[in-house]
Structure formats: C-alpha cells, structure tokens
Amino acid sequence: MVWALVAHSRPDMVPVFVPAFLMFGILIALVAVAIKILICCRIFAKAGYCWALGLLMLVPVADIIMAFILAFGDWPVQRELRLLKQQRR
C-alpha cells in the first residue's frame, strides 16, 4: 500500500525508497540475530555449558536438539551442586 502511494505520488522516489527500505530491514534482522546469539550464549554459560554452544542455536536443526538438551538434560551446574551436597553430608 505504501509502495503504491509513493509510486503514484512521486515516481522519482521509488528507486530511492526500495533500497533504503531493504537496508533498514536487513539492519533490523542483523540486530535481532545478534540479540539472539547473545541471549543463547548467556543461557548456555549460566547452565554450565561452554558459551559457544549458544552459536548452535543459529543452525536450523541443531537449535531444536539444543533446546531439548537444555530442557531435559542434566546441567553441569546441577551436577556440581549435587556433588557438593553429597560431600557436605
């Protein structure tokens, strides 16, 4: 709809509008991916895994597998806590 309004009112603006819109969209997508990487790396680090495993969340099939590992796996942090509780007894 916006495209039709720009093309109809000022046809000379179309060659400027399309690349600017595409660059803005690409910039927003890159920021979203960077935020996702940051969040996933922090989650893996806090769970006791290597932070670099968060990068696997960008791989299409690996993200599902890693989500299952986080949800149902035994975290290294939990393992360490269990060992410390056993030593205290």
How is this structure best described in words?
- The protein is an all-alpha fold and 89 residues long.
- The protein has one domain (17-88).
- 76% of the residues lie in helices and 0% in strands.
- The protein has helices at residues 2-9, 14-47, 60-72, 76-88.
- The longest helix has 34 residues, at 14-47.
- The radius of gyration is 23 Å and the shape is rod-shaped.
Concise structural overview:
The protein has about 90 residues and is mainly α. It has helices at about 1-10, 15-45, 60-70, 75-89. The chain has one domain.
Q: Strand fraction band?
A: under 5%
User: What spatial form do the alpha-carbon principal axes imply?
Assistant: rod-shaped
Question: Which sequence of SSEs, written as H and E, runs from N to C?
Answer: HHHH
Poorly predicted residue ranges: none
Question: Sheet with the most strands?
Answer: none
Radius of gyration: 23 Å
N- to C-terminal separation?
Answer: 70 Å
Class per helix and strand makeup: mainly alpha
What's the overall average pLDDT, rounded?
A: 86
Count of alpha/pi helices: 4
Helix fraction by DSSP (H/I, runs of at least 4): over 70%
How many strands in all? 0
Total domain units: 1
